[in-house]
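U., I forgot to send this yesterday:
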Amino acid sequence: MNPFDLIKNFPIRYKLLFIYSSCFFVIMTLSSLIIFSIVKQNVQANIESELKNSTTAIHNTIKTAVSVSIKNRLRGVAEKNYEIIQRLYDHAHQGEISETEAKNRATDIILSQSIGISGYICILDGHGRVLKHPKKSLEGLDISDHRFVQEMIAIKNGYIEYEWQNPGDAYPRPKALYLTYFKPWNWMITVSSYRKEFLKLVDIDDFKEGILNLKFGKTGYSYVMDTKGNVIIHPELTGINVFTDKRFSGQFFREMLDKKNGKLEYAWKNPGETRYREKLVFFNYIPEYDWVVASSSYLDEIRSPLYAIKQIIILVGMAALVIFIPITVFLSDTITKPLHSLMEKFKEDIAGGFSNRSVEMESSDEVGQLAFYYNSFMDRLATYDRELLSEISE
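Result:
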């Protein structure tokens, strides 16, 4: 059955109320959905951008802090050995020892030192030929064809980062070196080590507070962990291993550490909390330190503005209906009351015979014009009635 067949028999008041209410509901629903969708996209995009930018900033901060620590460490060792060589050179220049003995002593001191786990100090001449090296087989080799050696020859003093693959290594690894140039002997003293081996030299407190001070929403935070599950920086879990701690399933962390870069949504419950909450996390991998830096926030906090907007839309809709219904009733009364007056007149005329009674015109709209035509019609009927009675009388 066509629903309009039912509506067409309704009184005009209810027709207007039904039609206006339906139109109002459809318009409010569509406009609310559009507004909610746009706001949701903007809120989601803004918080994701904030999390992503914060993660990138933390990533860069950590890399910079570690690089500075490595650079300062290598520089300190290089400058200390430069002082030793300078002192021996002075002794030789003053005739206290021979230059050959001075060089031998300097070489023994340099080669006896280790940097980190596998780092070392070696000596090259100003043209890129290896003079002294912990591996005797490399001494005498010309390695000036390597780009980082060409950079060493060009700058003579300073810090260099480069990739290096030893025989037997599966892939190149990032290394760092600091060199000083002792001009009297044409020596380039290079202090080098793999960057990953210097993590123990990094003072995490230098950047820990800055990371923990970052907040997203009410309780969102940033953290740092390694790929073995050890939490390095976290508001509550610093020092634990999420793979061995029974309070955590570790599944999310395994997925994040396998992926290394990107974003994930997951359920999380901090120690002491009673329920799991959905979280969003952005994370970046620092391969040279085997660290993952992440920024996370709870989805309900991200979407809290959406809930407020949703409530506002509902309240506005309800308030609009409260105002809209009386207005609709009032407008319908302006139409139906004159019509009812006409209907009563017709009813009286039908029941009691013709009477020359006019309807009061309350407006000049269509209903008022209908009353005017009714009055004109009744006047003409009255005239015809008098003429007819007159003719009958004659």
